[in-house]
Each structure stands twice: as structure tokens, then as C-alpha cells.
Amino acid sequence: MANEVKIYTTPTCPHCRTVKEFLSKKGIDFTAYDVTQDKEALKEMIEISGARSVPVISACNEVLVGFDPNRLEQMLRCIEQRSDV
After folding, report:
1. Residue 1 pLDDT grade (very low, low, confident, very high; cuts 50, 70, 90)
2. pTM for this predicted structure
3. Is 27 left (phi over 0), alpha (psi -120 to 50) or beta?
4. How far apart are CA 73 and CA 84, in angstroms?
5. Do the Cβ atoms of 22 and 75 come closer than 8 Å?
6. Sign of the CA dihedral 66, 35, 44, 21?
7. DSSP per residue over 6-69, as a string?
8. Does residue 37 form part of some domain?
9. Which of 42, 43, 53, 83 is an S-S bond match for 35, by CB 3.0 to 4.6 Å?
């Protein structure tokens, strides 16, 4: 689903926690995948991002590696627009 928000994380990643807090404060539902435990999620993360670093955020047919709040806000506009309808 294009509007589904997925976050690929590791338990020790501080930026991963920041992304989750950021989305929670905005009221955006997301699914988090721990790539240290979920090998299929790790494989998917690498396929969509080309990266092995976390966090990787997938939403609205876009992929963001790392936490950039401004870029993430832009990515999430499609979700926020749907909720305004």
C-alpha cells in the first residue's frame, strides 16, 4: 500500500527512536521492522534503499534513509492530505 508507513530499524539506533516519536506525535500510524531480527525486512530494506544503515522510512512511494524531519514532512503530505478529505 502506497500510503503505508514502514520504518526499518535496529534496537540501538537513536535516530530510529526519534523517527518513531516524530510520527507518533503527528498521529501517523506506522509499522516498525527490527532488521536485526527480521531477515526478510532486512532484505526488503536493502532492495528499496540500497542501504544497510537505519532508519529507512518508506511511505507514499518514496524512501528516506536517515532522519531528516523536513524531508519526512514532505514525504508524508500524501497521508496527511488523505486524512483531510
Report:
1. very low
2. 0.89
3. left
4. 15
5. no
6. negative
7. EEEE-TT-HHHHHHHHHHHHTT---EEEETTT-HHHHHHHHHHHS--SS-EEEETTEEEES--H
8. yes
9. 42
Query: What CATH number is associated with residue 55?
Result: 3.40.30.10
Structural domains counted in the chain:
1
3-state secondary structure of 1: coil
- Classify strands 62-65 and 6-9 as parallel, antiparallel or unpaired: unpaired
pLDDT-above-90 percentage for the chain: 81
Single out the residue of 23, 31, 26, 25 nearest to residue 6, CA to CA: 31
Which structural domain range is residue 31 located in? 6-80
Query: Which has more pLDDT, 54 or 4?
Result: 54
Q: Is residue 85 domain-resident? A: no
Q: What is the pLDDT of residues 28-53, one digit of tens each?
A: 999 999 999 999 999 999 999 999 99
Q: Give the pLDDT score at 55.
A: 98
